[in-house]
Design a protein that fits this description.
The complex is a heterodimer. By secondary structure, chain A is mostly helical. Chain A is 62% helix and 6% strand. Chain A has four domains: 93 residues, no CATH class; 94 residues; 159 residues, no CATH class; 36 residues, no CATH class. Chain A is built from 16 helices and five strands. In chain A, helix 1 packs parallel to helix 3. Chain B has one domain. The longest helix of chain B has 29 residues. Classes of the chains: A mainly alpha, B mainly alpha. The interface between A and B is large, with 67 and 67 residues.
Protein backbone atom coordinates (compact mmCIF):
# COMPACT_ATOMS: atom_id res chain seq x y z
CA UNK A 1 0.00 0.00 0.00
CA UNK A 2 2.87 2.38 0.71
CA UNK A 3 3.86 2.40 -2.94
CA UNK A 4 0.29 3.30 -3.95
CA UNK A 5 0.38 6.14 -1.43
CA UNK A 6 3.66 7.39 -2.87
CA UNK A 7 2.28 7.18 -6.40
CA UNK A 8 -0.73 9.26 -5.35
CA UNK A 9 1.45 11.87 -3.65
CA UNK A 10 3.55 12.13 -6.80
CA UNK A 11 0.42 12.70 -8.88
CA UNK A 12 -0.83 15.42 -6.54
CA UNK A 13 2.52 17.23 -6.72
CA UNK A 14 2.60 16.92 -10.52
CA UNK A 15 -0.95 18.23 -10.91
CA UNK A 16 -0.29 21.18 -8.64
CA UNK A 17 2.87 22.08 -10.58
CA UNK A 18 1.09 21.88 -13.95
CA UNK A 19 -1.81 24.03 -12.78
CA UNK A 20 0.52 26.63 -11.24
CA UNK A 21 2.53 26.77 -14.46
CA UNK A 22 -0.58 27.41 -16.58
CA UNK A 23 -1.84 29.91 -14.04
CA UNK A 24 1.17 32.11 -14.68
CA UNK A 25 -0.07 32.76 -18.22
CA UNK A 26 -3.81 32.88 -17.48
CA UNK A 27 -4.38 35.52 -14.87
CA UNK A 28 -8.07 36.47 -14.79
CA UNK A 29 -7.23 39.78 -13.18
CA UNK A 30 -4.74 40.74 -15.86
CA UNK A 31 -5.86 43.26 -18.44
CA UNK A 32 -6.43 41.32 -21.62
CA UNK A 33 -6.95 43.15 -24.84
CA UNK A 34 -10.37 42.18 -26.08
CA UNK A 35 -11.32 39.73 -27.41
CA UNK A 36 -10.21 37.02 -25.03
CA UNK A 37 -11.27 38.18 -21.58
CA UNK A 38 -14.17 35.77 -21.21
CA UNK A 39 -12.10 32.92 -22.66
CA UNK A 40 -9.25 33.65 -20.23
CA UNK A 41 -11.73 33.65 -17.38
CA UNK A 42 -13.20 30.33 -18.54
CA UNK A 43 -9.73 28.75 -18.69
CA UNK A 44 -8.78 30.20 -15.33
CA UNK A 45 -11.99 29.02 -13.70
CA UNK A 46 -11.54 25.56 -15.21
CA UNK A 47 -8.04 25.39 -13.76
CA UNK A 48 -9.48 26.44 -10.41
CA UNK A 49 -12.12 23.78 -10.45
CA UNK A 50 -9.56 21.11 -11.45
CA UNK A 51 -7.45 22.28 -8.51
CA UNK A 52 -10.50 21.88 -6.25
CA UNK A 53 -11.14 18.43 -7.68
CA UNK A 54 -7.60 17.32 -6.98
CA UNK A 55 -7.86 18.59 -3.42
CA UNK A 56 -11.13 16.71 -3.01
CA UNK A 57 -9.51 13.47 -4.25
CA UNK A 58 -6.58 14.09 -1.90
CA UNK A 59 -8.96 14.31 1.03
CA UNK A 60 -10.84 11.19 -0.10
CA UNK A 61 -7.59 9.28 -0.45
CA UNK A 62 -6.94 9.81 3.26
CA UNK A 63 -10.21 8.09 4.15
CA UNK A 64 -10.27 5.09 1.83
CA UNK A 65 -8.65 1.80 2.66
CA UNK A 66 -9.35 -0.59 -0.20
CA UNK A 67 -6.81 -1.02 -2.97
CA UNK A 68 -9.58 -0.63 -5.56
CA UNK A 69 -10.50 2.80 -4.18
CA UNK A 70 -6.88 3.96 -3.97
CA UNK A 71 -6.13 2.86 -7.53
CA UNK A 72 -9.31 4.52 -8.76
CA UNK A 73 -8.43 7.80 -7.07
CA UNK A 74 -4.99 7.65 -8.68
CA UNK A 75 -6.65 7.21 -12.07
CA UNK A 76 -8.92 10.19 -11.33
CA UNK A 77 -5.79 12.28 -10.81
CA UNK A 78 -4.26 11.02 -14.04
CA UNK A 79 -7.43 12.12 -15.83
CA UNK A 80 -7.20 15.57 -14.29
CA UNK A 81 -3.55 15.81 -15.25
CA UNK A 82 -4.37 14.79 -18.82
CA UNK A 83 -6.86 17.65 -18.90
CA UNK A 84 -4.21 20.16 -17.85
CA UNK A 85 -2.15 18.96 -20.82
CA UNK A 86 -5.15 19.57 -23.06
CA UNK A 87 -5.61 23.09 -21.73
CA UNK A 88 -2.29 23.97 -23.32
CA UNK A 89 -4.06 23.71 -26.68
CA UNK A 90 -6.29 26.62 -25.75
CA UNK A 91 -3.50 28.96 -24.72
CA UNK A 92 -2.61 30.18 -28.25
CA UNK A 93 -6.19 31.40 -28.65
CA UNK A 94 -5.40 34.12 -26.12
CA UNK A 95 -2.70 35.47 -28.43
CA UNK A 96 -3.36 37.92 -31.22
CA UNK A 97 -3.52 36.13 -34.62
CA UNK A 98 -0.65 36.68 -37.02
CA UNK A 99 -3.05 37.24 -39.93
CA UNK A 100 -5.96 39.12 -38.44
CA UNK A 101 -9.45 39.52 -39.82
CA UNK A 102 -10.39 42.94 -41.14
CA UNK A 103 -12.22 45.13 -38.64
CA UNK A 104 -15.39 44.95 -40.74
CA UNK A 105 -15.25 41.15 -40.67
CA UNK A 106 -14.92 41.21 -36.88
CA UNK A 107 -17.98 43.48 -36.60
CA UNK A 108 -19.84 41.19 -38.98
CA UNK A 109 -19.08 38.12 -36.86
CA UNK A 110 -20.03 39.94 -33.67
CA UNK A 111 -23.37 40.94 -35.18
CA UNK A 112 -23.99 37.38 -36.36
CA UNK A 113 -23.12 35.97 -32.94
CA UNK A 114 -25.49 38.35 -31.18
CA UNK A 115 -28.31 37.51 -33.59
CA UNK A 116 -27.77 33.75 -33.62
CA UNK A 117 -26.57 32.99 -30.10
CA UNK A 118 -27.75 36.03 -28.17
CA UNK A 119 -25.92 38.25 -25.71
CA UNK A 120 -23.60 38.22 -23.90
CA UNK A 121 -21.04 36.63 -26.21
CA UNK A 122 -17.36 37.15 -26.85
CA UNK A 123 -16.07 36.04 -30.24
CA UNK A 124 -12.38 35.14 -30.26
CA UNK A 125 -11.05 34.89 -33.84
CA UNK A 126 -7.99 32.71 -34.25
CA UNK A 127 -6.06 31.13 -37.10
CA UNK A 128 -6.79 27.44 -37.63
CA UNK A 129 -3.36 26.84 -39.11
CA UNK A 130 -4.82 24.67 -41.87
CA UNK A 131 -7.70 24.88 -44.33
CA UNK A 132 -10.62 24.67 -41.97
CA UNK A 133 -13.16 26.91 -40.33
CA UNK A 134 -14.19 25.66 -36.90
CA UNK A 135 -15.67 26.86 -33.65
CA UNK A 136 -15.63 25.88 -30.00
CA UNK A 137 -17.72 27.50 -27.31
CA UNK A 138 -17.16 26.99 -23.58
CA UNK A 139 -14.40 24.53 -24.57
CA UNK A 140 -14.13 22.99 -21.09
CA UNK A 141 -17.82 22.91 -20.22
CA UNK A 142 -17.93 19.10 -20.16
CA UNK A 143 -15.60 19.04 -17.19
CA UNK A 144 -17.92 20.99 -14.96
CA UNK A 145 -21.14 20.12 -13.18
CA UNK A 146 -21.31 16.70 -11.66
CA UNK A 147 -17.70 15.62 -11.99
CA UNK A 148 -16.42 18.71 -10.29
CA UNK A 149 -19.43 19.18 -8.05
CA UNK A 150 -19.94 22.76 -9.10
CA UNK A 151 -21.90 24.65 -11.72
CA UNK A 152 -20.04 26.53 -14.43
CA UNK A 153 -20.45 30.30 -14.19
CA UNK A 154 -22.69 31.40 -17.08
CA UNK A 155 -21.43 34.87 -17.82
CA UNK A 156 -20.28 35.98 -21.23
CA UNK A 157 -20.12 32.98 -23.59
CA UNK A 158 -16.67 32.73 -25.18
CA UNK A 159 -16.80 31.53 -28.79
CA UNK A 160 -13.48 30.62 -30.36
CA UNK A 161 -13.83 30.82 -34.11
CA UNK A 162 -11.01 29.80 -36.40
CA UNK A 163 -10.29 30.50 -40.04
CA UNK A 164 -7.65 29.39 -42.52
CA UNK A 165 -4.91 31.99 -42.06
CA UNK A 166 -4.51 32.66 -45.75
CA UNK A 167 -8.23 33.36 -46.13
CA UNK A 168 -8.25 36.09 -43.48
CA UNK A 169 -9.09 38.77 -46.03
CA UNK A 170 -11.43 36.65 -48.21
CA UNK A 171 -14.55 38.48 -47.13
CA UNK A 172 -16.99 36.64 -49.38
CA UNK A 173 -15.99 33.33 -47.78
CA UNK A 174 -16.65 34.66 -44.29
CA UNK A 175 -20.23 33.49 -44.56
CA UNK A 176 -18.72 30.23 -43.28
CA UNK A 177 -18.54 31.90 -39.88
CA UNK A 178 -22.33 31.93 -39.77
CA UNK A 179 -22.41 28.12 -40.03
CA UNK A 180 -19.75 27.85 -37.32
CA UNK A 181 -21.64 30.21 -35.03
CA UNK A 182 -24.61 27.94 -35.65
CA UNK A 183 -22.97 25.31 -33.44
CA UNK A 184 -22.97 27.76 -30.52
CA UNK A 185 -26.59 28.66 -31.29
CA UNK A 186 -27.56 24.98 -31.35
CA UNK A 187 -25.94 24.53 -27.94
CA UNK A 188 -27.33 27.75 -26.48
CA UNK A 189 -30.92 27.10 -27.55
CA UNK A 190 -31.02 23.28 -27.31
CA UNK A 191 -31.98 23.03 -30.98
CA UNK A 192 -30.53 19.59 -31.71
CA UNK A 193 -32.53 17.87 -28.99
CA UNK A 194 -35.65 19.75 -30.05
CA UNK A 195 -35.37 18.17 -33.50
CA UNK A 196 -33.70 14.84 -32.73
CA UNK A 197 -35.55 13.65 -29.63
CA UNK A 198 -38.95 13.25 -31.34
CA UNK A 199 -37.26 11.60 -34.34
CA UNK A 200 -35.34 9.07 -32.24
CA UNK A 201 -38.55 8.15 -30.41
CA UNK A 202 -40.62 7.90 -33.57
CA UNK A 203 -42.01 4.67 -34.99
CA UNK A 204 -40.39 5.51 -38.32
CA UNK A 205 -36.95 5.53 -36.72
CA UNK A 206 -37.45 2.51 -34.47
CA UNK A 207 -39.13 0.44 -37.18
CA UNK A 208 -36.45 1.38 -39.68
CA UNK A 209 -33.76 0.46 -37.22
CA UNK A 210 -35.32 -2.92 -36.53
CA UNK A 211 -35.42 -3.60 -40.24
CA UNK A 212 -31.87 -2.45 -40.77
CA UNK A 213 -29.98 -3.93 -37.85
CA UNK A 214 -30.08 -7.60 -37.13
CA UNK A 215 -32.64 -8.41 -34.50
CA UNK A 216 -30.05 -10.28 -32.47
CA UNK A 217 -29.06 -8.82 -29.14
CA UNK A 218 -25.32 -9.15 -29.54
CA UNK A 219 -22.81 -6.43 -28.84
CA UNK A 220 -22.18 -5.72 -32.53
CA UNK A 221 -25.83 -4.83 -33.02
CA UNK A 222 -25.69 -2.51 -29.99
CA UNK A 223 -22.55 -0.86 -31.31
CA UNK A 224 -24.13 -0.30 -34.72
CA UNK A 225 -27.21 1.23 -33.12
CA UNK A 226 -25.05 3.57 -31.01
CA UNK A 227 -23.17 4.64 -34.13
CA UNK A 228 -26.32 5.21 -36.18
CA UNK A 229 -27.77 7.35 -33.41
CA UNK A 230 -24.55 9.37 -33.21
CA UNK A 231 -24.41 9.83 -36.97
CA UNK A 232 -27.97 11.10 -37.12
CA UNK A 233 -27.38 13.47 -34.20
CA UNK A 234 -24.25 14.80 -35.91
CA UNK A 235 -25.95 15.21 -39.27
CA UNK A 236 -28.95 16.98 -37.74
CA UNK A 237 -26.63 19.42 -35.97
CA UNK A 238 -24.83 20.21 -39.23
CA UNK A 239 -28.13 20.70 -41.05
CA UNK A 240 -29.29 23.02 -38.27
CA UNK A 241 -26.10 25.05 -38.63
CA UNK A 242 -26.63 25.29 -42.40
CA UNK A 243 -30.18 26.48 -41.92
CA UNK A 244 -29.27 28.95 -39.19
CA UNK A 245 -26.60 30.41 -41.46
CA UNK A 246 -29.04 30.64 -44.34
CA UNK A 247 -31.72 32.19 -42.13
CA UNK A 248 -29.24 34.84 -41.02
CA UNK A 249 -27.31 35.45 -44.24
CA UNK A 250 -29.71 34.38 -46.97
CA UNK A 251 -28.26 33.38 -50.37
CA UNK A 252 -24.78 34.68 -49.43
CA UNK A 253 -24.34 31.63 -47.25
CA UNK A 254 -25.40 29.24 -50.00
CA UNK A 255 -22.94 30.83 -52.44
CA UNK A 256 -20.14 30.83 -49.87
CA UNK A 257 -20.87 27.28 -48.74
CA UNK A 258 -20.98 25.83 -52.23
CA UNK A 259 -17.88 27.76 -53.31
CA UNK A 260 -15.96 26.22 -50.41
CA UNK A 261 -17.42 22.72 -50.14
CA UNK A 262 -18.32 21.56 -53.63
CA UNK A 263 -14.74 21.85 -54.94
CA UNK A 264 -13.67 19.12 -52.50
CA UNK A 265 -16.73 16.95 -51.99
CA UNK A 266 -19.92 15.98 -53.81
CA UNK A 267 -22.36 13.25 -52.84
CA UNK A 268 -20.23 10.95 -50.68
CA UNK A 269 -21.42 10.77 -47.05
CA UNK A 270 -19.04 11.56 -44.21
CA UNK A 271 -19.02 10.58 -40.58
CA UNK A 272 -19.66 14.02 -39.17
CA UNK A 273 -21.34 15.78 -42.07
CA UNK A 274 -24.14 14.83 -44.45
CA UNK A 275 -23.16 14.51 -48.09
CA UNK A 276 -22.79 17.94 -49.68
CA UNK A 277 -25.42 17.33 -52.33
CA UNK A 278 -28.02 16.62 -49.68
CA UNK A 279 -27.05 19.80 -47.85
CA UNK A 280 -27.41 21.77 -51.08
CA UNK A 281 -30.81 20.19 -51.68
CA UNK A 282 -32.05 21.33 -48.27
CA UNK A 283 -30.53 24.77 -48.69
CA UNK A 284 -32.24 25.29 -52.05
CA UNK A 285 -35.55 24.15 -50.55
CA UNK A 286 -35.12 26.76 -47.83
CA UNK A 287 -34.26 29.47 -50.36
CA UNK A 288 -37.60 28.71 -51.94
CA UNK A 289 -39.43 28.58 -48.61
CA UNK A 290 -37.95 31.94 -47.59
CA UNK A 291 -38.65 33.44 -51.03
CA UNK A 292 -35.04 33.99 -52.06
CA UNK A 293 -35.06 31.62 -55.03
CA UNK A 294 -36.44 34.01 -57.65
CA UNK A 295 -33.65 36.46 -56.95
CA UNK A 296 -30.93 33.85 -57.50
CA UNK A 297 -32.62 32.35 -60.53
CA UNK A 298 -32.81 35.80 -62.08
CA UNK A 299 -29.39 37.17 -61.12
CA UNK A 300 -27.34 33.96 -61.23
CA UNK A 301 -29.14 31.50 -63.52
CA UNK A 302 -26.04 29.42 -64.35
CA UNK A 303 -25.16 29.05 -60.70
CA UNK A 304 -28.72 28.08 -59.85
CA UNK A 305 -28.53 25.36 -62.51
CA UNK A 306 -25.27 24.10 -61.04
CA UNK A 307 -26.76 24.03 -57.55
CA UNK A 308 -29.81 22.20 -58.90
CA UNK A 309 -27.50 19.61 -60.44
CA UNK A 310 -25.90 19.08 -57.04
CA UNK A 311 -29.25 19.00 -55.28
CA UNK A 312 -30.55 16.31 -57.62
CA UNK A 313 -27.54 14.02 -57.27
CA UNK A 314 -28.37 10.94 -55.16
CA UNK A 315 -26.04 9.03 -52.90
CA UNK A 316 -23.35 7.11 -54.78
CA UNK A 317 -24.07 3.77 -53.10
CA UNK A 318 -27.18 1.90 -52.12
CA UNK A 319 -25.84 0.84 -48.73
CA UNK A 320 -28.99 0.52 -46.60
CA UNK A 321 -27.39 1.97 -43.51
CA UNK A 322 -26.28 5.13 -45.27
CA UNK A 323 -29.64 5.46 -46.96
CA UNK A 324 -31.34 5.11 -43.59
CA UNK A 325 -29.21 7.83 -41.99
CA UNK A 326 -29.89 10.12 -44.95
CA UNK A 327 -33.59 9.35 -45.01
CA UNK A 328 -33.99 10.00 -41.29
CA UNK A 329 -32.00 13.23 -41.47
CA UNK A 330 -34.01 14.45 -44.44
CA UNK A 331 -37.27 13.52 -42.74
CA UNK A 332 -36.79 16.37 -40.27
CA UNK A 333 -36.09 18.96 -42.97
CA UNK A 334 -39.10 21.10 -42.09
CA UNK A 335 -38.43 20.90 -38.34
CA UNK A 336 -34.80 21.90 -38.88
CA UNK A 337 -35.79 24.91 -40.98
CA UNK A 338 -38.55 25.92 -38.56
CA UNK A 339 -36.22 25.74 -35.55
CA UNK A 340 -33.63 27.86 -37.36
CA UNK A 341 -36.17 30.50 -38.38
CA UNK A 342 -37.70 30.54 -34.90
CA UNK A 343 -34.26 30.87 -33.33
CA UNK A 344 -33.36 33.86 -35.51
CA UNK A 345 -36.67 35.59 -34.82
CA UNK A 346 -36.32 39.24 -35.77
CA UNK A 347 -32.78 38.50 -36.94
CA UNK A 348 -34.08 36.57 -39.97
CA UNK A 349 -32.67 38.06 -43.18
CA UNK A 350 -35.76 39.22 -45.01
CA UNK A 351 -35.81 38.84 -48.79
CA UNK A 352 -38.28 41.68 -49.24
CA UNK A 353 -36.16 44.10 -47.22
CA UNK A 354 -33.12 43.21 -49.31
CA UNK A 355 -34.96 43.79 -52.56
CA UNK A 356 -35.80 47.33 -51.41
CA UNK A 357 -32.11 48.27 -51.22
CA UNK A 358 -30.58 45.92 -53.79
CA UNK A 359 -30.70 48.40 -56.66
CA UNK A 360 -28.95 51.18 -54.75
CA UNK A 361 -26.30 48.83 -53.36
CA UNK A 362 -25.65 47.32 -56.76
CA UNK A 363 -25.19 50.74 -58.28
CA UNK A 364 -22.66 51.81 -55.65
CA UNK A 365 -20.74 48.54 -55.78
CA UNK A 366 -20.55 48.47 -59.57
CA UNK A 367 -18.96 51.93 -59.38
CA UNK A 368 -16.45 50.72 -56.78
CA UNK A 369 -18.02 52.89 -54.09
CA UNK A 370 -18.05 51.39 -50.59
CA UNK A 371 -21.74 51.27 -49.67
CA UNK A 372 -21.25 52.27 -46.07
CA UNK A 373 -24.65 53.95 -46.03
CA UNK A 374 -27.62 54.08 -48.32
CA UNK A 375 -28.62 57.64 -47.65
CA UNK A 376 -27.28 60.24 -45.21
CA UNK A 377 -28.91 58.58 -42.22
CA UNK A 378 -29.24 54.85 -42.93
CA UNK A 379 -26.27 52.51 -42.54
CA UNK A 380 -26.28 49.56 -44.89
CA UNK A 381 -26.81 46.16 -43.32
CA UNK A 382 -23.61 44.10 -43.62
CA UNK A 383 -25.68 41.22 -44.97
CA UNK A 384 -27.11 43.42 -47.73
CA UNK A 385 -23.60 44.46 -48.74
CA UNK A 386 -22.33 40.88 -48.77
CA UNK A 387 -25.20 39.64 -50.90
CA UNK A 388 -25.07 42.56 -53.31
CA UNK A 389 -21.33 42.01 -53.69
CA UNK B 1 -3.84 15.86 -33.90
CA UNK B 2 -5.09 19.40 -34.24
CA UNK B 3 -6.02 21.43 -31.19
CA UNK B 4 -9.64 21.80 -32.28
CA UNK B 5 -10.21 18.07 -32.73
CA UNK B 6 -8.38 17.34 -29.51
CA UNK B 7 -10.38 19.79 -27.44
CA UNK B 8 -13.60 18.68 -29.05
CA UNK B 9 -13.19 15.21 -27.61
CA UNK B 10 -10.90 15.51 -24.63
CA UNK B 11 -13.09 17.15 -21.96
CA UNK B 12 -15.98 14.73 -22.53
CA UNK B 13 -13.61 11.75 -22.49
CA UNK B 14 -12.05 12.97 -19.24
CA UNK B 15 -15.51 13.58 -17.78
CA UNK B 16 -16.60 10.06 -18.73
CA UNK B 17 -13.45 8.61 -17.17
CA UNK B 18 -14.04 10.55 -13.97
CA UNK B 19 -17.67 9.46 -13.92
CA UNK B 20 -16.61 5.81 -14.33
CA UNK B 21 -14.33 6.27 -11.34
CA UNK B 22 -17.19 7.68 -9.30
CA UNK B 23 -19.23 4.55 -10.05
CA UNK B 24 -16.35 2.35 -8.88
CA UNK B 25 -15.82 4.35 -5.70
CA UNK B 26 -19.54 4.34 -4.90
CA UNK B 27 -19.80 0.57 -5.47
CA UNK B 28 -16.70 -0.09 -3.41
CA UNK B 29 -18.23 1.72 -0.45
CA UNK B 30 -21.66 0.18 -0.93
CA UNK B 31 -20.16 -3.32 -0.99
CA UNK B 32 -18.36 -2.50 2.25
CA UNK B 33 -21.76 -1.92 3.81
CA UNK B 34 -21.81 1.88 3.66
CA UNK B 35 -25.03 3.71 2.80
CA UNK B 36 -24.53 5.64 -0.46
CA UNK B 37 -24.41 9.41 -0.18
CA UNK B 38 -26.55 11.50 -2.51
CA UNK B 39 -23.55 12.01 -4.78
CA UNK B 40 -22.83 8.28 -4.82
CA UNK B 41 -26.46 7.53 -5.64
CA UNK B 42 -26.14 9.89 -8.60
CA UNK B 43 -23.03 8.08 -9.79
CA UNK B 44 -24.71 4.68 -9.48
CA UNK B 45 -27.79 5.91 -11.33
CA UNK B 46 -25.55 7.21 -14.12
CA UNK B 47 -23.86 3.81 -14.31
CA UNK B 48 -27.22 2.09 -14.47
CA UNK B 49 -28.35 4.48 -17.21
CA UNK B 50 -25.29 3.65 -19.30
CA UNK B 51 -25.88 -0.10 -19.00
CA UNK B 52 -29.55 0.27 -20.00
CA UNK B 53 -28.47 2.51 -22.87
CA UNK B 54 -26.18 -0.25 -24.16
CA UNK B 55 -29.15 -2.61 -24.34
CA UNK B 56 -31.42 0.01 -25.91
CA UNK B 57 -29.38 2.87 -27.41
CA UNK B 58 -32.53 4.64 -28.61
CA UNK B 59 -34.08 4.94 -25.19
CA UNK B 60 -33.24 7.80 -22.87
CA UNK B 61 -35.05 7.54 -19.56
CA UNK B 62 -35.26 10.33 -17.03
CA UNK B 63 -32.16 9.01 -15.25
CA UNK B 64 -30.24 9.11 -18.50
CA UNK B 65 -30.74 12.83 -18.77
CA UNK B 66 -28.39 13.72 -15.93
CA UNK B 67 -25.14 15.23 -17.07
CA UNK B 68 -23.08 12.40 -15.60
CA UNK B 69 -25.14 9.82 -17.47
CA UNK B 70 -24.87 11.80 -20.69
CA UNK B 71 -21.08 11.79 -20.41
CA UNK B 72 -21.14 8.03 -20.10
CA UNK B 73 -23.66 7.67 -22.91
CA UNK B 74 -21.69 9.74 -25.39
CA UNK B 75 -20.94 7.62 -28.44
CA UNK B 76 -17.21 7.14 -27.85
CA UNK B 77 -17.66 6.07 -24.23
CA UNK B 78 -20.70 3.91 -25.00
CA UNK B 79 -18.70 2.06 -27.66
CA UNK B 80 -15.86 1.56 -25.19
CA UNK B 81 -18.39 0.27 -22.66
CA UNK B 82 -19.79 -2.20 -25.20
CA UNK B 83 -16.26 -3.51 -25.68
CA UNK B 84 -15.74 -3.89 -21.92
CA UNK B 85 -19.10 -5.54 -21.31
CA UNK B 86 -18.61 -7.86 -24.26
CA UNK B 87 -15.32 -9.03 -22.78
CA UNK B 88 -17.07 -9.70 -19.47
CA UNK B 89 -20.02 -11.53 -21.05
CA UNK B 90 -18.31 -14.12 -23.21
CA UNK B 91 -20.72 -16.91 -24.05
CA UNK B 92 -23.74 -14.99 -22.79
CA UNK B 93 -26.40 -12.97 -24.56
CA UNK B 94 -25.16 -9.38 -24.50
CA UNK B 95 -28.48 -7.68 -23.85
CA UNK B 96 -29.49 -10.10 -21.12
CA UNK B 97 -26.11 -9.75 -19.43
CA UNK B 98 -25.98 -5.96 -19.54
CA UNK B 99 -29.59 -5.63 -18.40
CA UNK B 100 -28.77 -7.94 -15.49
CA UNK B 101 -25.92 -5.65 -14.46
CA UNK B 102 -28.23 -2.64 -14.60
CA UNK B 103 -30.84 -4.47 -12.53
CA UNK B 104 -28.34 -5.31 -9.81
CA UNK B 105 -27.39 -1.64 -9.46
CA UNK B 106 -31.06 -0.76 -9.28
CA UNK B 107 -31.62 -3.32 -6.50
CA UNK B 108 -28.59 -2.06 -4.58
CA UNK B 109 -29.95 1.47 -4.76
CA UNK B 110 -33.39 0.43 -3.60
CA UNK B 111 -32.62 -2.25 -1.03
CA UNK B 112 -28.92 -2.10 -0.27
CA UNK B 113 -26.40 -4.75 -1.25
CA UNK B 114 -27.70 -8.30 -0.88
CA UNK B 115 -25.17 -11.11 -0.44
CA UNK B 116 -26.54 -12.87 -3.53
CA UNK B 117 -25.88 -9.81 -5.64
CA UNK B 118 -22.26 -9.35 -4.61
CA UNK B 119 -20.73 -11.36 -7.50
CA UNK B 120 -22.77 -9.39 -10.03
CA UNK B 121 -21.90 -6.10 -8.33
CA UNK B 122 -18.24 -7.13 -8.49
CA UNK B 123 -18.73 -7.57 -12.26
CA UNK B 124 -20.24 -4.08 -12.47
CA UNK B 125 -17.30 -2.66 -10.52
CA UNK B 126 -14.85 -4.37 -12.86
CA UNK B 127 -16.72 -3.11 -15.93
CA UNK B 128 -16.53 0.51 -14.78
CA UNK B 129 -12.97 0.14 -13.61
CA UNK B 130 -11.98 -1.13 -17.07
CA UNK B 131 -14.06 1.60 -18.67
CA UNK B 132 -12.16 4.21 -16.65
CA UNK B 133 -8.90 2.70 -17.89
CA UNK B 134 -10.15 2.86 -21.48
CA UNK B 135 -11.19 6.50 -21.12
CA UNK B 136 -7.78 7.38 -19.69
CA UNK B 137 -6.17 5.58 -22.60
CA UNK B 138 -8.45 7.39 -25.07
CA UNK B 139 -7.63 10.73 -23.44
CA UNK B 140 -3.96 10.00 -23.97
CA UNK B 141 -4.62 8.94 -27.54
CA UNK B 142 -6.42 12.23 -28.13
CA UNK B 143 -3.53 14.14 -26.61
CA UNK B 144 -0.94 12.47 -28.79
CA UNK B 145 -2.40 11.24 -32.03
CA UNK B 146 -5.10 11.56 -34.59
CA UNK B 147 -8.23 9.56 -33.95
CA UNK B 148 -11.57 9.27 -35.70
CA UNK B 149 -13.94 9.27 -32.75
CA UNK B 150 -16.85 7.64 -34.48
CA UNK B 151 -16.10 5.52 -37.50
CA UNK B 152 -18.65 4.77 -40.14
CA UNK B 153 -20.49 1.61 -39.09
CA UNK B 154 -19.76 -1.33 -41.30
CA UNK B 155 -22.45 -2.57 -43.64
CA UNK B 156 -21.39 -6.05 -42.60
CA UNK B 157 -23.34 -5.60 -39.37
CA UNK B 158 -26.56 -4.76 -41.14
CA UNK B 159 -29.23 -6.88 -42.61
CA UNK B 160 -30.94 -5.55 -45.75
CA UNK B 161 -34.11 -7.49 -45.14
Amino acid sequence: MAVIDDDFAFLVATAERLIAQLGVDVDPDATYSKPGTALARHISETLGVIRDGIERERQRFKTVTSEVAKRTLSRQLRLYISMTWGIHDAMPWLERPHRQLDLGAVFFIDEAALAMVGPPVEVVPTESGYYMYWTLSWPFEELWEEQLHTAMPRGTRPIVIAYPPHEASSVLLHGAFAHELGHSAVDQHGLRDAVADPLLRSDAYLDGLRTLVKTTTDSAASATRVKIRELILGWIEELLCDQLALAYLGPSFVLCFTAMILPVTWNEPQSRHPNATMRVRLLLASLEALEWDDLIKMELPEIWSWLALAANTPLPVSDPLTSFVQHMSESVEVQVRDEAVKCLGAGLFDAGAYRSVAGKLGELLSNDILPAQLDPSTPADHRDIMLAA
Amino acid sequence: MRNFERLQGLPSTIAAGLQSGEVVLALDRAMAGETPTESERGALEAGEALLRHLANPEIRGTVGRTRGAQHLMSAGTALDAIEVVQAASVGKDFNTFVTGLADVISRALEQGVAADDEPALRSVLNVFSHLGDLELARANTLLRTREELVTWPSSMTTSPS
